[in-house]
Write a structure and sequence with these properties.
The complex is a heterodimer. By secondary structure, chain A is of the alpha/beta class. Chain A has helices at residues 4-7, 52-59, 81-90, 106-116, 122-135, 151-163, 181-195, 208-214, 232-237, 242-252, and strands spanning 12-23, 26-37, 41-45, 67-72, 75-76, 91-94, 169-173, 200-204, 217-222, 225-230. In chain A, the strands form two sheets. A six-stranded mixed beta sheet of chain A has the order 6-7-8-3-9-10, with helices on both faces. In chain A, helix 7 (181-195) links the parallel strand 7 and strand 8. Chain B folds into four domains: 17-54; 108-191 and 408-495, MetI-like fold; 197-256; 261-393, Periplasmic binding protein-like II (D-Maltodextrin-Binding Protein, domain 2, 3-Layer(aba) Sandwich). In chain B, 57% of the residues lie in helices and 12% in strands. In chain B, a hairpin with a 2-residue loop joins strand 1 and strand 2. In chain B, helix 13 (410-437) packs across helix 15 (453-483) and helix 16 (495-506) runs antiparallel to helix 17 (510-537). Classes of the chains: A alpha/beta, B alpha+beta.
């Protein structure tokens, strides 16, 4: 039997083998297998309820998978809380609803995990935080509270908060879906910038332009299964699977 | 286009007054004011009539043959009733009703302050436990909450005091130390060791202040260096270390330079310093090491009577620090001793002169003054005794009572524990609701960032839950404070119980009740104001 361990090579940072997940009777993930190489940018598409969010959330244990093997950065994801903690330090996640901590200032949001998880000094953490806030274009908002920022600004703070932990892998869970149209661009610009900086990225998104432009591979999921894995050009111009064709015809012709 | 009908306008005619919202509002207010005036009038007329019926005695004082109107003068009279425990001194024969009220306020405040602190701790942990993923913890918390919420508080207090405490605790004769420590829990309450400051404590306190200042300085200086060099200087460690060194030096400096503590002994006793005492007792007992007393008693080589006979007989003044200073050192050297206490120095010296004891401990000035009153004062030596800034006072059963140490009475324990257990259940539910009010996304973000479960609670969830928790928590704090008046049921002399006694004693109910109402009102308002201020301070900043 092939296990995740035997499939792992040096450059494979994420290896999933036959992951299954149920919510009660509902089979949310069915035998999902995927290997991601370091620096790869992967965009996951699919209709709602297809399990794309559930899939990337199993990678940092926000959701528990019930069978199959997951290996992230060479660490097996199991019930071992030390492994989980180690993986979470290396894997950053950006959420649809930003999930900033409303009782902390922008700077405190970004430095919280570096100080308490990485155990870096406050000075060093603040330096790193300001570096990332500058990178996402909002260093001047550091002293404000999340409630005082626009949605786009909040999502950029959330990205800076994730990056301040200096992760290798970034998970984006529909990062632009809760934004007003005019703010989507500012967040996508940051994501494009990151995709070109060598991070390994798995992004669940509905932004086809983003997928076409920066993805190395596009994955299409339906009913808890990976239906198609393809290059962006082939995926959009020459989809193999019937379900993919239907999906693309629905989103591209309206 | 012209066949579109003109929209008909409705509701633009003059508004009749019975439909005018402004007029309705004003009318309602007028009706309310009239009703209020009528009810107050009725109330005050009744109070006046009833007071007249009670007789003029309620509000009059007599002096000689003349009487005059007065309200609160009688409260300056002697209280003449005992109060079982008090934070300040109290003598029923000389102290006034006012002081009895003051003691009640202090006792109520003591219950409220400790109650609020303990309730907060218990409620927070139980609230968190209620949401635990562990089945056992979750259900224990649930059962505790349901048991407490669904039975009356008064019943719980009675049960705690009369069933659990008075029936299940050992009587004072059978009491055993707990875990070999000098802690005794009996039907009299809990007696435990206490720390007593000596005369040199002030000097030591100055060193402590110095230590804090120095630690601050080191913290700041190392912080600057850290900024300059960019290297961590572990300033926390150095600050704490420097503080401890200063405090330790202060302990010895203060103790060695103190010369207030002394003892009066006869020249014939051959005791010239405290170190001579063990040898003296050893000679009397005929053994060469006092640490063998236990063994000798066990094997029968010594009888308890012989040990009592040989014990060092000490005279001292009631509640003096000198006694604690000496006995703490004797206990360390395993010297058996026997203390006779007097109320005043002259009584103590009289006992000493009559041979009732062989050593009289007090401060040097008292001893010098008293020695001069003795006939054979030249044969009496004042020997200095070592002192440390703080000594441990240990409870010891003498007859049917404990002497020394501190005491937690059953009455206080019952009302405190009862209120904490009861209110804690409500606070737990408030904390649970508060935690649940924080969105799941916050937990997910905290986890995704790698925060541990305790960090998640402490840094992310609880600070946000606090905003939801504070307003209902204020109500629970007020409930606890006001419910402390049930202390009367378990015989704890709180404000309510003392006021009640005063009413019975004086036969004048109105003034004490007004005073009591005002005091409870002030305490409650203070708590509300404080928590409202705190709540506004931690409010979320929105756009």
């Amino acid at each position: 039997m092939t296990t995740a361990a035997t499939l792992t090579k040096m450059e494979d940072v994420i290896v999933c083998h036959n992951i299954n997940k149920w919510y009660g009777d509902y089979h949310a993930l069915r035998d999902v297998s995927l290997t991601v190489k370091a620096g790869e940018v992967i965009v996951i598409l699919g209709p709602s309820g297809s399990g794309k969010s559930t899939f990337i959330r199993t990678l940092n244990r926000l959701e528990e998978h019930q069978s199959g093997d997951i290996m992230v950065d060479g660490i097996t994801l199991s019930h071992d809380v030390r492994n989980i903690a180690e993986i979470r330090r290396d894997v950053g996640m950006v959420f649809q609803q930003f999930n900033l901590f409303p009782h902390l200032t922008v700077l405190e949001n970004v430095t919280l995990a570096p100080i308490h998880v990485r155990k870096w000094s406050r000075e060093r953490s603040e330096e790193i935080a300001m570096k990332w806030l500058t990178r996402v274009g909002i260093p001047e908002q550091a002293g404000k509270y999340p409630g005082q920022l626009s949605g786009g600004q909040q999502q950029r703070v959330a990205i800076a908060r994730t990056l301040a932990m200096e992760p290798n892998i970034l998970l984006f869970d529909e990062p632009t879906s809760a934004l007003d149209p005019e703010m989507i661009k500012e967040v996508l610009d940051v994501m494009r910038d990151l995709a070109r900086s060598g991070y390994t990225i798995l992004a669940v998104t509905h932004e086809m332009g983003f997928a076409r432009e920066v993805a190395d591979r596009v994955i299409f999921m339906d009913a808890g299964q990976i239906v198609e894995i393809n290059t962006p050009e082939d995926f959009f111009t020459n989809p193999k699977n019937d379900r993919t064709k239907l999906f693309l015809s629905q989103i591209l012709h309206h | 286009m012209s066949d579109i009908p003109k929209p008909s306008l409705r509701g633009n005619e003059r508004i009749p007054p019975w439909r005018d919202g402004r007029i309705i509002g004003i009318l309602l207010q007028i009706v309310f004011v009239i009703l209020l005036v009528l009810s107050l009038n009725w109330l005050f007329t009744n109070i006046g009539n009833n007071l007249d019926a009670l007789g003029a005695g309620q509000f009059s004082c007599k002096e000689g043959g003349t009487s005059y109107r007065c309200a609160f003068d009688f409260l300056s009279g002697e209280a003449q009733f005992p109060i079982s425990e008090s934070v300040i001194s109290y003598d029923p024969n000389t102290d006034s009703f006012w002081r009895a009220i003051g003691i009640g306020v202090l006792n109520t405040a003591k219950v409220a302050v400790f109650g609020i602190i303990l309730t907060t701790i218990l409620g927070t942990f139980t609230g968190i436990a209620r949401l635990s993923s562990n089945w056992l913890i979750r259900n224990i918390a649930k059962w505790y909450i349901d048991l407490m919420r669904n039975t009356p508080l008064l019943l719980q207090l009675f049960f705690l005091y009369f069933v659990i405490f008075l029936v299940s605790l050992p009587s004072v004769n059978d009491v055993q130390p707990i875990l070999g420590l000098p802690i005794f829990i009996s039907q009299r309450g809990m007696n435990y060791p206490s720390l007593v400051p000596m005369a040199s404590f002030a000097t030591w306190a100055a060193f402590i202040v110095l230590g804090i200042v120095q630690a601050q300085l080191i913290w700041v200086i190392l912080g600057r260096r850290e900024e300059q060099t960019g290297q961590e200087a572990s300033r926390g460690r150095w600050a704490i270390l420097s503080f401890l060194v200063v405090v330790l030096i202060g302990w010895f400096v203060a103790g060695n330079n103190a010369d207030t503590e002394a003892a009066l002994v006869s020249r014939a006793s051959r005791v010239r310093e405290i170190g001579d005492i063990p040898a003296l007792i050893e000679r009397r007992l005929g053994i060469n090491d006092l640490s063998n007393i236990e063994n000798a008693l066990a094997t029968g080589a010594l009888t308890p009577e012989a040990v009592d006979e040989a014990a060092l007989k000490i005279c001292t003044i009631n509640e003096s620090a000198s006694e604690i200073n000496l006995t703490a050192q004797l206990r360390q050297a395993n010297v058996p001793f026997d203390v006779t206490r007097s109320d005043r120095p002259d009584q103590a010296i009289a006992t000493y002169a009559e041979g009732g004891c062989e050593i009289f401990v007090a401060n040097r000035a008292t001893l010098a003054a008293e020695r001069d009153l003795l006939e054979n004062s030249a044969d009496q030596l004042i020997v200095p005794l070592p002192e440390t800034p703080v000594r441990v006072s240990v409870p010891k059963l003498e007859g049917f009572n404990f002497v020394g140490g501190s005491k937690l009475t059953l009455e206080f324990a019952a009302i405190l524990l009862g209120l904490v257990l009861y209110t804690g259940a409500f606070v737990a539910e408030i904390v649970r609701a508060g935690i649940l009010s924080v969105s799941k996304g916050q937990t997910e973000a905290a986890r995704a960032l790698g925060l541990s479960e305790t960090q998640r609670l402490r840094l992310v969830v609880l600070p946000q839950a606090l905003r939801v928790i504070i307003p209902p928590l204020t109500s629970q704090y007020l409930n606890l404070t006001k419910n402390s008046s049930l202390a009367a049921a378990v015989l704890f002399p709180d404000l309510y119980r003392n006021i009640n006694t005063i009413i019975n004693q004086s036969g004048r109910p109105i003034q004490p009740i007004v005073i009591m109402a005002l005091i409870y009102l002030s305490i409650s308002l203070f708590i509300s104001f404080f928590l409202n201020w705190y709540n506004s301070k931690i409010a979320l900043v929105e756009r």
